[in-house]
Amino acid sequence: MTIKEALTLKTKSLNITSEELDLAILEAGLDGTATYHPQTDGMKVDLVWAGFLLTTIQTVEVREDDVSIKYSTNLKGIYSAIMKKWGLPDPFAPAKPTVKQILFS
Question: Most buried residue, 9, 65, 66, 104, by most Cβ within 10 Å?
């Protein structure tokens, strides 16, 4: 399986064109025709996939008179899992508060 085929499988539900996929592969410094090796190419392939996920995370709101319906594509969990897998910072993770110990005399 080539790198492009692997990315095509991962992104098939995202409606990504072949040209967009080719550009993302090129920008990631990958060769789309090369054989996909998860050990060496896995991180870059996952980051390309995560980049496509970020472009599709959106909330669409439909309003008519008094009625409002929101549709959400909840891909944040998948994106967060990819970032955690590779030890990268997750922009959707809840902020961890800084706790300081104060001793009152």
Answer: 9
